[in-house]
Write a structure and sequence with these properties.
heterodimer; A: 348 residues; mainly alpha; 14 helices; globular; disordered N terminus; B: 287 residues
């Protein structure tokens, strides 16, 4: 595993300073994120909410790719969370915050069931198998009007309840307020995802990715760990779906089609899946390019074309993603200066 | 009984164009080891060749089909040169690049022809009657063309020097190149044939399906089901699986509905993946 950002505090005073610097950076990041919605227009605030949700989606996808398997069903799993949470709130009157958690649980449960057939497959077969499983789920939503609403999906999903106490009242219909709600949920989720990756379990995921035979030979049950990664990733995808459902207020089968999966794939690949922040970088950069640059140019129809071109070019020329750009530039710079380890940090 | 027989005739038509598409996909996978996600869009481009040349510019139907075959084959060569060759050691990269290419082709079709269905008048209104079942000449034409093209391909692969080189590359690329077979040349030919088969399927069926820029999606799903059921590397398996799938799908569509048929098809593929991932007819590891 290549070294990841300077997040792990080293021992000693140097480590303490570095840790402090890292914390300061986090504080600045959150300050910037808190200020952000006030600099945006109303429609841009709505995009910001979706962006925050997509950050969780793509980060949870990365956890799955840690074990080396690429799924094409992740957006459908997100949809399971969305549908489950919406139905629980609509039909059974479960309070929305709880239904969101249960939505994540439902997504995790579906993943746990699917893992039995799916993890008999590997590589390309897993990719196609996950695609088939996802399409079957999606077609079931489409076919069975009761309770899934058929092709039109579910409408008028209960919104997140307003907070009304004596001095504080928050209306989550406002994008700004929902933005902060999503930010809190997503930050907490990302923290958990990050801790999982840095734990023993996360290291085992890496081991399975790079050396699955070796991992097996030292007693790692690869099936169980693959399932675990899949279930955890699906839980957070389900949470993302629930956040989406109660924000937009409507879900339908088309929203979770493979076209949407392509975008998740693009974000992850363009950002780079080698590090935790790579996919996040990918989704943020591409969304900003998409919504601000392309929209400003009035290029709505050609947007998929540009996405496609970006995808091809990044696979060809930036196989480790945007996040490798920094390392590469640094290496190039050092090379010009004639630095000692000019070749050492060049990514493969 | 009439309905059963009619459905069987309809299924034969579906099997013939599905076989063309699936065999093309298997060719590409066999030689290059890459799954071409844009294969459905190659079909779509073939269909739009007919929309443009035949429906809009009034060239003869057959000429438009031939132009579609050649044009899509050339698109395939472009894909090989720009994406699959540089990504030869990176199958996942090739697959992702082909997704990018799919988006580009789709957008170009939208820009050129709009989102709406392209209407293509049938080349002939005549129909044949086979023991009571109606078969339009347009459909009969697809069936005959598929048989002819697949037979020609089979002869090419078995008899010609290129065909033998192609099969050698599919079996073991390294050993083949040690024998002096050019990998680039072979990949180019395979890509041309694979893409052209998808293109000609699109061109032939254009008057029957009313193409849209997004038609490739359902095509690629169908093609995946067929190649998985048939065994990913097996050309014969692809043809047999195409027939099998076309019959299952057409019958379920006729007697239940289309969405159920899609679910059944996907479930069939899923079952094959679980029980026998090499497919029903694929004995070898790859190709």
């Amino acid at each position: 595993m290549p070294e990841t950002a300077g997040a792990m505090p080293a021992a000693g005073t140097g480590g303490a300073i570095r840790q402090l610097a890292w914390r300061l950076r986090l504080v600045f990041l959150f300050a910037a994120l808190a200020a952000l919605p006030y600099l945006l227009s109303y429609s841009q605030q709505e995009i910001a909410v979706l962006l925050v949700i997509n950050v969780l989606l793509v980060s949870s996808y990365r956890l799955l790719t840690l074990t080396g398997e690429w799924s094409l069903g992740h957006v459908v799993i997100m949809g399971v969370g969305a549908y489950a949470s919406a139905l629980l709130a609509k039909q059974l009157g479960v309070p929305v915050p709880l239904s969101m958690l249960l939505g994540g649980g439902a997504a995790a449960a579906v993943a746990a069931i699917l893992s039995f057939p799916l993890f008999r497959m590997k590589g390309f077969y897993f990719l196609i198998g996950s695609f088939a499983a996802g399409e079957i789920i999606r077609l079931i939503w489409k076919r069975f009007t009761d309770p899934f609403g058929g092709p039109k999906g579910l409408k008028r999903i209960d919104p997140f309840p307003d907070i009304e106490t004596g001095f504080l009242s928050i209306d989550f219909y406002e994008p700004v307020n929902y933005y902060f709600l999503a930010l809190v949920v997503v930050s907490a989720s990302l923290f958990i995802l990050y801790r999982i990756e840095r734990s023993r379990i996360g290291l085992t995921f890496h081991a399975i990715h790079w050396q699955d035979r070796l991992a097996e030979s030292v007693g790692v049950d690869t099936f169980r760990y693959r399932t675990l990664a899949f279930v955890i990733a699906s839980f957070f995808a389900g949470i993302a779906g629930a956040l989406y459902a109660h924000y937009v207020g409507a879900v339908n089968p088309t929203r979770f089609s493979v076209d949407q999966m392509v975008y998740v794939l693009v974000w992850a690949v363009v950002g780079g899946t080698a590090t935790f922040h790579g996919p996040i970088l990918g989704v943020v950069v591409l969304t900003v390019v998409n919504e601000i640059v392309l929209r400003a140019l009035g290029l709505d129809t050609v947007r998929p074309l540009i996405y496609g071109a970006i995808l091809i070019l990044s696979v060809l020329y930036l196989p480790n993603g945007l996040e490798s750009l920094g390392t590469r530039l640094r290496a190039r710079l050092q090379h010009w200066r004639g630095g000692p380890d000019a070749t050492g940090s060049e990514p493969a | 009984m009439d309905l059963l027989w009619q459905t069987a005739v309809n299924a034969t038509y579906a099997a013939s164009y599905m076989a063309l598409i699936a065999v093309g996909l298997v060719m590409i996978f066999g030689v290059m080891g890459v799954i071409n996600f844009a294969h459905g869009e190659l079909y779509m481009v073939g269909a739009y060749c007919v929309v443009f040349l035949y429906a809009q510019e009034n060239f003869p139907f057959l000429l438009a089909v031939a132009a579609g075959l050649v044009f899509v084959g050339i698109v395939g060569i472009v894909m090989e040169r720009t994406m699959f060759r540089p990504l030869r050691d990176n199958p996942l990269g090739g697959l992702i690049a082909s997704i990018g290419f799919l988006l580009i082709l789709q957008t170009l079709a939208v820009l050129g022809f709009g989102r709406r269905m392209g209407h293509v008048p049938p080349a002939t209104q005549d129909k044949a009657e086979i023991f009571g079942a109606v078969l339009t000449y347009q459909r009969l034409f697809v069936i005959l063309a598929a048989i002819l093209l697949l037979a020609a391909l089979w002869a090419f692969l078995r008899r010609s020097k290129f065909g033998r080189a192609l099969r050698a590359c599919a079996q073991d690329a390294e050993a083949a190149s040690l024998q002096g077979i050019s990998m680039n040349q072979t990949a180019r030919i395979a890509m041309f044939i694979g893409a052209a088969l998808a293109g000609v399927a699109g061109a032939l069926t254009a008057p029957l399906v009313s193409p849209t820029p997004y038609i490739g999606h359902s095509i690629i799903v169908t093609a995946f089901i067929i190649i998985i059921v048939g065994g990913v590397g097996s050309l014969e398996g692809a043809v047999i699986a195409a027939v099998l799938y076309a019959f299952v799908h057409t019958f379920v569509t006729t007697f239940f509905d289309g969405v159920i048929a899609n679910i059944v098809g996907l479930a069939l593929m899923f079952a094959v993946l679980v029980v026998r991932p090499t497919g029903l007819f694929g004995a070898r590891e790859r190709a």
